[in-house]
Design goal:
Elements: E1 5-7, H1 18-22, E2 27-31, H2 35-47, E3 51-55, H3 58-67, E4 72-75, H4 84-97, E5 102-106, H5 111-119, E6 124-127, H6 132-154, H7 164-181, E7 185-192, H8 195-202, H9 204-219, E8 227-232, E9 235-241, H10 245-260, E10 264-266, E11 269-271, E12 275-281, H11 289-305, E13 311-312
Parallel strand pairs: 2-3, 2-4, 4-5, 5-6, 12-13
Antiparallel strand pairs: 1-10, 7-9, 7-12, 8-9, 10-11
The chain binds 3'-deoxy-guanosine-5'-triphosphate (GH3) and magnesium ion (3 copies).
3'-deoxy-guanosine-5'-triphosphate binds next to strand 7, helix 8 and helix 9.
């Protein structure tokens, strides 16, 4: 097969950056005044290493919902101060937007109440008394679905890098951290060199494999706190928190050396690919995302002009 290529490296395991996120204990907020049930649930859920937060009233539940950031909510309908339906209608918008599943657990389960809850967008209405085994399984499945959703939404399928949506999110977070705490970060923009030639010479599928090999190399070369994104096409971005431009340069140049020495083969030819990069560091003068991207882009452009396979600060 003339088109087949074999990449002459061991593609390392796709270091899924989501693992980073997953290591965080998932928080379940229980809003229920049934102290006995709450105690049983708390014990069972903690055994499965969830972090459980408890509110025995609607008021406290709402406070906790807006204050912490639970990953799932278990909501009772009959609460001492307010109906769970009211709580539901207050929080469902934000919960949907942030993919926080809400599971109703209720002693009151008339068809009318259930219809009301479902019509507000709830997926699960569990009737008391709760069967603990079934309930734990439901929670597990909802978390699994949530994980799959999140992955589909923020991870680029071809390369395993985060996508543009997550790029924007990370930028927003790092910029706001910087403004609050002066914690610095660097941004590197990366563009593969003469990539059109790879596609033209060896076909688009081989081009795809090069993109994958590049991403795997980067994902296995960076720290857990770094965020690697596909900016679009053959352009990528790497955020390096707590790293100044000079240190970021060392990281990128090491990856540059490793990548440009990889050997690819296709159509009975061996070929190599390189990339150019531009780095910028957040400063008082440059702390808006547009400005940072513009600076890194200009540095990248300088690397291209100076002959490619290099990095500019
Ligand atoms: P330069 O060194 O100046 O960056 O040259 P270049 O050829 O890399 O830049 P150009 O912008 O001309 O071409 C980028 C190419 O990347 C063209 C496009 O088809 C290819 N490309 C973008 N996304 C993908 C992809 O997902 N898969 C493959 N195989 N190719 C892609
Ligand atoms: Mg109750
Ligand atoms: Mg490009
Ligand atoms: Mg390019």
């Amino acid at each position: 097969d003339k088109n087949s290529s074999s990449i002459m490296i061991n593609p390392p395991n796709s270091a899924n950056q989501l693992n980073n996120e997953e290591c965080r204990q998932s928080e379940i907020l229980i809003i229920d005044d049934d102290v006995e049930l709450v105690a049983i649930l708390k014990e069972a859920l903690e055994k499965q290493s969830y972090y459980v937060s408890i509110a025995l009233s609607a008021e406290r539940g709402l406070k906790k919902f807006y204050g912490s950031k639970p990953d799932m909510i278990l909501l009772d309908i009959l609460l001492p101060d307010k109906s769970g339906i009211e709580v539901l209608s207050q929080i469902i918008g934000k919960a949907k937007k942030e993919y926080i599943p809400i599971i109703i657990i209720s002693g009151e389960h008339s068809k009318e109440i259930q219809l009301h809850a479902y019509s507000l967008g709830v997926m699960d209405f569990v009737q008391k008394p709760v069967d603990l085994d079934l309930f734990l399984m439901l929670i597990k499945n909802r978390f699994e679905l949530k994980r799959e959703w999140q992955e589909a939404i923020i991870v680029d399928e071809l390369t395993g890098a985060f996508n543009r949506k997550q790029f924007n999110q990370t930028m927003k977070q790092l910029v706001s951290d910087f403004k609050r705490t002066s914690r610095i970060f660097s941004l590197a923009l990366i563009d593969l060199d003469h990539f059109k030639k790879v596609n033209d010479s060896y076909g688009h599928l081989v081009g795809d494999e090069v993109l994958q090999a590049f991403s795997h190399l980067v994902l296995n070369s960076i720290r857990v706190e770094d965020t690697f994104c596909r900016f679009g096409g053959e352009e990528f971005a790497l955020f390096l928190p707590n790293t100044n431009a000079a240190s970021a340069l060392l990281v990128i140049e090491r990856i540059q050396k490793d990548f440009s020495s990889l050997k690819f083969s296709a159509r009975d030819e061996i070929f190599q690919v390189s990339f150019s990069s531009g780095i910028t560091e957040v400063t008082e003068a440059a702390q808006e995302s547009d400005k940072l991207i513009e600076e890194a882009d200009q540095a990248l452009y300088a690397s291209k002009n100076a002959g490619r396979n290099q990095t500019t600060l």
